[in-house]
Amino acid sequence: MTARKSESKAAPEKKALRILHFSDTHMLLTEEHLNDLPDADIFIHTGDFTDKGDLSTEFRIFNEQLGKQFSKYPIRIVILGNHDCYKLKNNFSKARQILSNATHLLCHEEANVCGLRIYGCPWFYLHRWDYGMCRKAPDESNFHAIPENLDILLTHGPPYKILDEADGYQGNYSGSEDLHKNVIRAKPKLHLFGHIHEMNGVHETKDTTFINSAMKNRWGKTRIQNWCRIIDAVKTSSGWTFKVKENETKFSDCMNLLQTI
Prior knowledge:
This protein has a 7-stranded mixed β-sheet with strand order 1-6-7-8-9-11-10, with no helix packed on it. It contains 5 helices and 13 strands. The chain has one domain (about 15-245): Purple Acid Phosphatase, chain A, domain 2. β2 (about 15-20), α1 (about 30-35) and β3 (about 40-45) form a beta-alpha-beta unit. It is α/β, with parallel strands linked by helices. The relative contact order is 0.17. Helix content is about 15%, strand content about 25%. It has helices spanning about 30-35, 60-65, 85-90, 90-100, 175-185; strands spanning about 5, 15-20, 40-45, 75-80, 105, 110-115, 115-120, 150-155, 190-195, 200-205, 210, 230-235, 240-245.
């Protein structure tokens, strides 16, 4: 599988943009959440918008949200997470058909959005949750195809040793070593993901700002624990710069656990 350009219509270029990053909502967004969404130019969801991956109900409900509450965002970019692939498997064309209200469903492809180079890698069905491979599964994660010098890279899961310590155990790294290697090679300015709920946070290096915006909690009563993350993008003479805003939690069931490492 090789990377390709998205065929979606390109949005006009701008000098300043606001990006809203959602991840791991798992069908837990309530009317209260959806009726008080922050303003932004671009909505991005990095996967696990479903919980059981049901195509006839959960995919349909999310698509309705994209066409209704999220329609305030002219650009709506989605990639698939592991829960979304439970029944879909790797039938990405079926996902495109169902999620008709997404302006971009990125499956190993790049889109130019308002002057931003954005590349998305969906979850591959036969990966385990910790990015290990199931027995006899071909490795089609395709991370080697990630282009260099992107503005934004989207994956569902984290790279190895970056916001990926699972189950509350220090050193229990569950990100992808292959993804880490290719992120170091490609040097995207911004890498957005989720998957490891308990590691919601921000990590900055010289080349890349990494953001885990997983919103569902990891322990206790199931709920949205972290609110979405707002990122301001400004185009300068040397390219795009990104500033992450602190979460402004408005809901009683959200606990802001912004973690800057």
